[in-house]
Design goal:
Length: 126
């Protein structure tokens, strides 16, 4: 498997002992979920994430795309053709100052777990 990091920063996997087990440098290409304001409730904007931008055109079946959790969830919800090839950093690891220095692993949305579609304002208000 080849991992391609589509976040704006390096992703470092750190085990429970504090050992770095994998590092994925930032590629300079960032995948994002485009926010869309779908309504307003008492002056608070209601936002849904949908269109995924920044995914390379030439992704092979052996490639795993590392994206943000928001992008992963939006891709799964919209049934993006590559959502099953996406993962996101899981369980942040912080230093003594509270700065994120890595994560424990990579999170995927299990196949078959996506049972929703794009969100409308009505979904927020019901």
């Amino acid at each position: 498997m080849q991992y391609v990091n589509l976040t704006p920063h390096a992703v470092t996997i750190i085990d429970d002992a504090g050992t770095v087990t994998a590092e994925y440098p930032a590629t300079g290409q960032v995948a994002r979920a485009g926010p869309q304001v779908v309504g307003d409730q008492d002056g608070v904007s209601l936002v849904s994430y949908g269109d995924i931008v920044g995914i390379p055109d030439d992704v092979s079946p052996e490639t795993i795309l590392i994206v943000s959790l928001v992008t992963l969830l939006a891709a799964a919800a919209s049934m993006h053709p590559l959502w099953n090839s996406m993962v996101a950093p899981w369980q942040e690891v912080r230093d003594s100052s509270g700065r994120i220095i890595g994560c424990r692993g990579l999170h995927a949305v299990p196949r078959g777990s996506v049972k929703w579609g794009p969100v409308s304002a009505d979904a927020f208000l019901s």
